[in-house]
Amino acid sequence: MKITVTYFGKLTELTGMTSEELSIAEASVKGVKSALEQRYPSLKNSTYQIAENNSVLANEAHIQTRTLDIFPPFSGG
């Protein structure tokens, strides 16, 4: 499955990209994280969240769309 991911904050520096298309084997958050960490090993030591349709997904969630946002940790204010 091919998906488009958009990176935000510190993750744009770690990946050197603002967005890209990825091929994933499994349509789940775990599948996305696996593909990202294989492509960018420095992400293994980073904390980040994956959002779909403006909602942060749990690690067990299945992907419903082909467009995801990848965020570093953030807090409200």
The geometry reads as: globular
End-to-end separation in angstroms reads 37 Å
Q: Could you estimate the helical fraction of the residues in percent? A: 10-25%
Query: What count of structural domains?
Result: 1
* CATH level-two architecture: Roll
Biggest beta-sheet profile: 5 strands, mixed
Order of helices and strands: EHEHEEE
**Which strand-content bin applies to the residues?**
25-35%
Q: Give the strand order of the largest sheet, numbering strands 1, 2, ... along the chain.
A: 2-1-5-3-4
Overall residue-averaged pLDDT value: 93
Summarize it.
The protein has 77 residues and is an alpha+beta fold. It has 2 helices and 5 strands, in the order E-H-E-H-E-E-E.
Describe it for me?
With 77 residues, the protein is an alpha+beta fold. The chain has a single domain (2-71), classed as Beta-grasp domain (Ubiquitin-like (UB roll)), CATH 3.10.20. It is 22% helix and 29% strand. The protein contains 2 helices and 5 strands. The chain has a 5-stranded mixed β-sheet with strand order 2-1-5-3-4. A hairpin with a 2-residue loop joins strand 3 (49-52) and strand 4 (55-56). The termini are far apart.
List keywords for this structure.
77 residues, Ubiquitin-like (UB roll), globular
Could you outline the blueprint of secondary structure elements for this entry?
Blueprint: E1 2-7, H1 10-15, E2 19-23, H2 29-39, E3 49-52, E4 55-56, E5 67-71
Parallel strand pairs: 1-5
Antiparallel strand pairs: 1-2, 3-4, 3-5
